[in-house]
Amino acid sequence: EGLEDLKCEQAFELSDASAERSAAACTVKLNKEPIIEYLKSNIVLIEELIDQGYEDKKTLQRRADKMKAWIENPELLDADADAEYAAVIEIDMNEIKEPILACPNDPDDVKTLTEIHEQGLRTEIDEVFVGSCMTNIGLFRALGEVLKGEGQVPTKLWVCPPTKMDEHTLIEEGYYAIFGTAGARTEIPGCSLCMGNQAQVGQGAYVFSTATRNFDNRLGKDSQVYLGSAELAAVVALKGKLPTAEEYMELVTKKIKPEMTDDVYRYLNFNKVSKEDLEAMVE
């Protein structure tokens, strides 16, 4: 609770990461508006899938109809007012002043950039991966904005959008040209390094990744993997190391200004793209 206006995609990132906390389930309380926005987008996508012959047509249409029915009468489950919990953890977001990373090789071993530098952990990075199903198109735009105008990066940079719809849009918006100028290796949309089943990093490499897991050998044999944001990934790729908190803030705030955030971080709402673009995304 407390983040009721998150987009559904942002709530998915939180809830899916709960698996790393050994949780059996996770719920994120949202207001109706972001859910309605998400469902309207998905209805248009489902109907385009049907138009292009995807199966099972009846199952897809039933899902779309259920979404439409809920939008007509939106009701959400709420926790009981007198519910008792084993523990209540309160987090003051105003106290988070810098990026937080998961350190090698445990998603529970989290530290701020400052703590990593103060504790003398290795900060040099060999490879950077921006991808996994828990990234979204806005994070790839953010990556591009930080890399823009900086030339080729000294690290091996992997870029892999989760869907071909994201890939299509990023190409159209010119971000793939930025990735190319940076010398990035762009992967076919999908899992790529996150699963280690389509590609792997070098043996023993130190890696910065935007994925949700950094267990031993997942990204490559003997790899040592930090987890963090796409914005931090861009800075790491440019510097070849984990920056200080001050270096991070200086570069990212210069590259992604407040007036840019709505455009950079906007989600791919299929009900707001042209019919022609939607057809090309789904084909």
Q: What is CATH's topology name of the largest domain?
A: Aconitase, domain 3
In the predicted model, the low-confidence regions spanning at least 5 consecutive residues are none
- CATH homologous superfamily of the largest domain? Aconitase, domain 3
Percent of residues in β-strands: 5-15%
- The top level CATH class name of the largest domain: Alpha Beta
- Count of helical segments? 11
* Secondary-structure-derived class: alpha/beta
Euclidean distance between termini CA atoms: 39 Å
Major sheet characteristics: 5 strands, parallel
Structure characterization notes:
With 283 residues, the protein is an alpha/beta fold. It folds into two domains: 1-96, Aconitase, Domain 2; 98-264, Aconitase, domain 3. The protein is built from eleven helices and seven strands. The strands form two sheets. Strands 5-4-3-6-7 form a five-stranded parallel β-sheet, with helices on one face. A two-stranded antiparallel ribbon has the order 1-2. Helix 5 crosses helix 7 (175-181) and helix 6 crosses helix 11. The two termini are 39 Å apart.
